[in-house]
TrEMBL record, chain A:
One of its GO terms (biological process) is phosphate ion transport. The chain crosses the membrane at residues 24-47, 84-108, 128-147, 159-180, 295-317. PROSITE patterns: ABC_TM1 (PS50928). This is Phosphate transport system permease protein.
UniProtKB/TrEMBL annotation, chain B:
Keywords: ATP-binding, Cell membrane, Membrane, Nucleotide-binding, Transport. The keyword rRNA-binding does not apply. GO terms for biological process: phosphate ion transmembrane transport. Pfam families: ABC_tran. SUPFAM superfamilies: P-loop containing nucleoside triphosphate hydrolases. This is Phosphate ABC transporter ATP-binding protein.
């Protein structure tokens, strides 16, 4: 300030600055809009083609049908999603049984127990696991896991089977669980750990009683991401599980609840929703045919399942959130 | 801080002349003692050959400039320094006559006897009840938990404010209430010693003064060792004061009144009157 009688210059800066600011804002908004528009476009496409499909095949028949054979050549064309749903659920649940415990415990180890040195080596290694192409996992399941299981636990297992595929899907999603959970646990303020130790808690008590509850919403979202990833996984399954839409034998168990023997599903080949879609695109595909349109119905079903998963995860995260 | 040499007291605050003096008058057993204690962070010495005896059921204040090692000393008593990898402790810290650095001492068991309150209020993101009951839970307390929670909250002068909201989160309380919740949590397992690491430095003056009153009450049942930056606070609440100066040296340790009115060491007088540190 040179002259004290002159008031400071507070006037709005030139139009160029304002124009630049406006352009930046618009640019960023446009990028955000791309994702939004893509999602919307996908949804609309799925819905419109699925509607065409449901005009020929009633929704009830699609949802309750136990036979999936979209190819008209073999005779007896049928579009029942149940065998595919069983395949998808089998892979997802079995994979979750592997990825959730192993991933969570890995995350606790990395966040709470590992020395900084061990962490700096292990974390990048885990991220590499996440970077392996899924087709490699698929061949690994087919060439190593299945023969190993056959030689040891399940001699009656077929070459293409759900178990080996599920195990590899589970392993593939471990890094997703461990990495996101570890980030959530590391974000828990150190003061909370100190408080626990100050009260005479052991490392295990601090990890499980303080750190995990405080980061549960992050951990829950890692589970949902991993499960959603398993639902959508295609390549491992198509290579290792085969592509046979097999309907397992349904037994009438106690209380009249239909029951499927897990061994009948896990040790045999099967087909998931995603594999069914791949198979349709792999054939001589003509637009507008029934098999072509069924793909969109399947896509819509898959979309609905993952949407429900996301909503559930949001509810869980809200419900159990321990904010610090 | 002005140097009021005309007055007996070296700082403007009067040394509190109530219950503290009754307590100081009678001799007390030693609760915690350090003998030839040296602590190093890597090559740097944080505590320099400290020997001192801390009396039972008294408030002992550790004061000194930043980086003088007072917090390090405090954290040696319950072995919280164990978690700092580069920290090395040499010498003895005796608690009830037992060296806590003996190889047969489990730091977890030690910390169950010595509670700790931290600088920043750090309640768990759990309900008020669960916060207070946490120590009881991990220590396998088999008595009436609700009763103990109530007693502890009363002991921390928080009960009347929270008795109708025991199930709401501890984080919904104000900063001062959170710190009293942390004190309730620390006293719930009935420790013998309570360590406080600058417990009021993150609080406003009103909340801080409530904590100070509380510390005075706590000393009837517990040995309180408090680190503070605030010399008036040390003068107000403590029976004994230890002055650490840069380099981790314990320069003077005596009755609080003596330290603030007539210290032996010129360096202590300089520090207290604000000429240094």
């Amino acid at each position: 300030m040179t002259d004290s009688t002159e008031s400071p210059d507070l006037s709005r800066r030139g139009g160029l600055t304002r124009l630049k600011e406006g352009t930046y804002g618009g640019l960023f908004a446009a990028c955000a809009a791309i994702t939004l528009l893509t999602t919307a476009a996908i949804f609309v496409t799925l819905l419109s083609d699925a509607v065409v499909f449901f005009r020929s095949i009633p929704i009830a028949e699609f949802l309750a049908g136990t036979n999936w054979s979209p190819n008209p050549a073999g005779g007896g064309q049928a579009f029942g999603i149940v065998p595919l749903l069983i395949g998808t659920i089998t892979v997802t649940v079995t994979a979750a049984f592997i990825s959730i415990p192993v991933g969570t415990l890995t995350a606790i180890y990395l966040s709470e127990y590992a020395t900084p040195n061990a962490r700096s080596i292990l974390k990048p290694l885990l991220e590499i696991l996440a970077g392996i192409p899924t087709v490699v996992y698929g061949y690994f399941a087919l060439v190593y896991v299945t023969p190993a299981l056959k030689a040891t636990l399940f001699p009656e297992m077929s070459t293409f089977n759900a178990l080996a595929a599920s195990i590899m899907v589970g392993i593939m999603t471990i890094p997703m669980v461990s990495s996101i959970s570890e980030d959530a646990m590391s974000a828990v303020p150190d003061e909370l750990r100190q408080a626990g130790y100050g009260l005479g808690a052991t490392k295990f008590e601090v990890s499980t009683g303080i750190v995990v509850p405080a980061s549960i919403s992050g951990i829950a979202s890692s589970y949902i991401l991993a499960v959603s990833r398993a639902i959508g996984e295609t390549m491992i399954v198509v290579v290792a599980m085969g592509a046979q839409a097999r309907m397992p034998e349904v037994q009438q168990a106690l209380f009249g609840i239909p029951f499927v023997n897990p061994a009948d599903v896990l040790l045999q080949s099967g087909m998931t929703i995603t594999v069914a879609m791949v198979q349709i695109t792999g054939g001589d595909l003509t637009g507008g045919t029934l098999p072509y349109n069924s793909m969109f119905a399947l896509g819509l079903a898959l979309f609905a399942v993952t949407l429900v998963m996301n909503v559930i995860s949001d509810i869980i995260a809200q419900r159990y959130r321990e904010e610090y | 801080m002005s140097n009021t040499t005309s007055d007996d007291s070296l700082i403007t605050t009067e040394v509190q002349a109530d219950s503290n003096d009754d307590r100081a008058a009678s001799a007390a057993e030693t609760a915690v003692a350090a003998r030839d204690l040296n602590v190093y962070y890597g090559d740097e010495r944080a505590i320099d050959d400290v020997t001192m005896e801390i009396p039972e059921k008294r408030v002992t204040a550790l004061i000194g400039p930043s980086g003088c090692g007072k917090s390090t000393f405090l954290r040696c008593i319950n072995r919280m320094n164990d978690m700092i990898e580069i920290c090395r402790v040499d010498g003895d810290v005796e608690f009830g006559g037992k060296n806590v650095y003996d190889t047969d001492v489990d730091p977890v068991a030690l910390r169950r006897k010595i509670g700790m309150v931290f600088q920043k209020p750090n309640p768990f993101p759990k309900s008020i009840r669960d916060n207070v009951a946490y120590g009881l839970k991990i220590q396998g307390f088999d008595g009436d938990v609700d009763k103990r929670v109530e007693e502890s909250l009363k002991g921390a002068a928080l009960w009347d404010e929270v008795k109708d909201q025991l199930d709401s989160s501890g984080l919904e309380l104000s900063g001062g209430q959170q710190q009293r919740l942390c004190i309730a949590r620390a006293i719930a397992p009935d420790p013998e010693v309570i360590l406080m690491d600058e417990p009021t430095s993150a609080l406003d003056p009103v909340a801080a003064s409530k904590i100070e009153d509380l510390i005075d009450d706590l000393a009837e049942q517990y040995t309180v060792i408090i680190v503070t930056h605030n010399m008036q606070q040390a003068a107000r609440i403590s029976d004994r004061t230890a002055v650490f100066l840069t380099g981790g040296e314990l320069v003077e340790y005596d009755d609080t009144a003596k330290i603030f009115e007539d210290p032996e060491e010129q360096r202590v007088e300089d520090y207290i009157t604000g000429k240094f540190g």
